[in-house]
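chain below, 162 aa
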Amino acid sequence: MPESFVLTGYYKLLFLYLEPLSSLCPILMVRFSGPEKWYNTFVPGMQPARSLEPGTEMAIWQLANSYFALCLVSTFMLRAVRTALPKDLVAQERIIGATLMALGTADIFSVLISWALLPQDTKYSPSTWSSTTHGNITFCSMLLISRIGWLYGVGRKLQFYN
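prediction:
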């Protein structure tokens, strides 16, 4: 049977399962552990906050909700492309490619902002980074490299981007 989806193998695992799962973690952490717990993971070595100002708490909830929105886009939109266009691989690639370019742009800013705002004494010590810092720098860098690889056809047959 011919290929019916442009996300296969590694890319399918990463973009349809692992990325949405990782994007679900912040909203679950805030909901079940409280916004202070997640807030305290942002900057390694930061003095833990026992409580948050109302504006800060709202910002944490909104940030967690933004991650949840990314989870929903990855979960539903990419699958909808596969379902709606099962035989049109060129259209699939154009839509998914545009989505991955937008997400890749966000990855670049996430990595750069997180890196720029790290304290100098922790920038070059990844072993001291929190899971949130690794998510914002390490995981986003891996996602960006994977998105670029997909766009360039690494490990797959190009339909549109050739």
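Helices lie at 9-33, 35-39, 54-84, 89-117, 120-123, 131-151. The mean pLDDT is 93.
thats it, cya
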